[in-house]
Amino acid sequence: MPIYLDHNATTHLDPRVLEAMLPYLSGPAANASSLHRYGRIARDAIEAARVQVAQLVGVTPREVIWTSGGTESNNLAIKGVADSFAPARLLYGATEHPAVMEAAESLAAHAWNVEAIAVDRRGHVVDSALQAQLAKADVKLVSLMRANNETGVIQDIAHYAGLVHAAGAWLHVDAVQAAGKMPVDMSELGADLMSLSSHKIYGPKGIGALVVRAEVELRPLMHGGAQERGVRGGTENVAAIAGFGCAAELAMQELETRTAHLLPLRERLEAGLREIPGTLVFGAGAERLANTLQFALAGYDGEALLMQLDRRGMAVSSGSACAAGNGAPSHVLIAMGYDTVTAKGAIRVSLGKDNTADDIDRLLAVLGEIARSLVAA
Ligand SMILES: Cc1ncc(COP(=O)(O)O)c(C=O)c1O
Q1: Which of 68, 92, 97, when mutated, tests ligand 1's pocket best, judged by the most ligand atoms within 8 Å of its CB?
Q2: Handedness of CA 174, 179, 183, 186 (dihedral sign)
Q3: Do 274 and 337 share a domain, yes or no?
Q4: How far is the centre of ligand 1, averaged over its atoms, from the C-alpha of 175 (Å)?
Q5: Mind listing the pLDDT tens digit for each residue in 21-51?
Q6: Residue 85: helix, strand or coil by DSSP?
Q7: What pLDDT is recorded for position 321?
Q8: Residue 204 alpha carbon to ligand 1 centre in Å
Q9: Catalytic residue among 322, 324, 364, 374, which?
Q10: Pocket residues: Cβ below 6 A from ligand 1
């Protein structure tokens, strides 16, 4: 039986989510903007899902804008806010997802002054570095992630929000890996914009949301549609939206049981890894997502290890899926102060609700075997 341990890359569709989607895949064709009854059915499904996703993060449904996923949400947040100002300054954390980093850096071509904020060894944005940048006038937007996709490290967003708001800037939070895996309340975090994605929580791919507070002015990336308050035009993917809504509701209902299942599994894995000499756990000691563990086996290349595990039917990642295969070390680990060789050794295990203790034991057995063969060689 293959063992899937790559849930931060994506998750399978929960059968209950599929059930919620089916009526909109096989029912009568309807555009949610049409006024006839079928259009109204589609519209109702979209609005019901908006309530479900809003509840997941403690906002009002009106604040939820559907997008095609986390990548688009991050781009819309950064470029959409930037477009409503004359060029000024924009900051982001050095361990952000490429969809934040590259969207931010693209603004440099439009006369924006863009800076990455340093993180410490655990992957937390360094207060003094953020404050030093905020002290320079004219920062309009800061983008920081709630939980890192590679290490699982969780940041104290409410604390940073205080600093960002004191400087008069908006705070965008990439909560793609956090929402549905840990409690996320947008008001408690103090975020002004927040990115969400469905396929990280057993929903369909290609659907996400950007939550935008009423006071934030946002320009659309695409023109020509009045949907989503004119911020994100285009005929809505009703089935995907209904699926995301269902996945959000299930994540909320099952958050405690999923966490209670995942945490002991991750601890079992971490304890087992520590028995293997030379193993390094990234972000150790920091608060981390219950499902995520990134580590390196001394002397082993991450991608080579990934392929060995793959041959044994175990799916893990050697960093973020987006960076995989390009040979570059993880920018997250480099930002955390690790050297290239160590960073290239990284393996990310991201557990899902259906993994078992047996999966962990089988992974540990194979890793132990590989480590022993390395010593013997
Ligand atoms: C932290 C983070 N932000 C954004 C994204 C992009 O989300 P999507 O795959 O929905 O475009 C990902 C996906 O890996 C992610 O982990």
Answers
A1: 97
A2: positive
A3: yes
A4: 9
A5: 999 999 887 899 999 999 999 999 999 999 9
A6: coil
A7: 47
A8: 13
A9: 322
A10: 69-71, 74, 97, 99, 145, 149, 174, 176-177, 197, 199, 208
Between strands 89-93 and 292-297, the pairing is unpaired
User: Ligand 1 center to residue 322 CA distance, Å?
Assistant: 9
Our answer to whether residue 246 is catalytic in this structure is: no
Same domain? 122 vs 198: yes
Where does a domain end: 224, 250, 276?
Answer: 250
Query: Are residues 236 and 45 in contact, defined by beta-carbon separation less than 8 angstroms?
Result: no
pTM value is 0.97
Domain, as residue range, for 350: 3-10+254-376
The protein residue whose alpha carbon is closest to atom 9 in ligand 1 is: 70
246 with 268, same domain? no
One domain, residues 195 and 301: no
pLDDT digits (tens, 9 = 90+) for 255-291: 999 999 999 999 999 999 999 998 999 999 999 999 9
What CATH number should be reported for the domain holding residue 341?
A: 3.90.1150.10
Same domain, 210 and 303: no
